[in-house]
Amino acid sequence: MANLVEIRDLRVAFDGVPVLHGIDLDVRPGEALGLVGESGCGKSVTWLAALGLLPSKAKVSGTVTLGETDLSGAPQAKLEKVRGGRIAMIFQDPSSALNPVLKVGRQLCEALRLHRGLTGNDARREALRLMDMVGIPDARGRFSLYPHEFSGGQCQRLMIAMALAGEPDLLIADEPTTALDATIQAQILDLLARLRAEMNMAIVFISHDLGAVAQVCERVCVMYAGRIVEQGAVGLLFERPRHPYTRGLFDAIPRLHGPRTPLVPIPGTVPDPRNLPKGCAFQPRCAHARGFCQSERPDLLAQKDGRKLACAFPLPEGSEEVEREVRREGMLQ
Amino acid sequence: MSPLLEANDLVRVYAGRKGLFGKAVPVRAVDGVSLRVNRGETLGIVGESGSGKSTLGRLLLGVDPAQGGTVQFDGQQLPEAGTQAWRALRARMQMVYQDPLAALDRRLTIATQIREPLDIHRVGTPEQREARVAELMRAVGLRPDQAGRYPHELSGGQRQRVVIARALATDPDLLVCDEPVSALDVSIQAQVVNLLRELQGDGRLSMVFISHDLKVVRNLCDRVAVMYLGRIVEEGPSEELFANPQHPYTQALISSVPEPGRALDSRVILQGEPPNPARRPSGCAFHPRCARATDICRGQVPDLIPVAPGQTAACHHVTGARATRAA
Ligand SMILES: Nc1ncnc2c1ncn2[C@@H]1O[C@H](COP(=O)(O)OP(=O)(O)OP(=O)(O)O)[C@@H](O)[C@H]1O
Ligand SMILES: Nc1ncnc2c1ncn2[C@@H]1O[C@H](COP(=O)(O)OP(=O)(O)OP(=O)(O)O)[C@@H](O)[C@H]1O
Ligand SMILES: [Mg+2]
Ligand SMILES: [Mg+2]
Question: N or C, fewer C-beta in 10 Å, chain A?
Answer without folding.
Answer: N
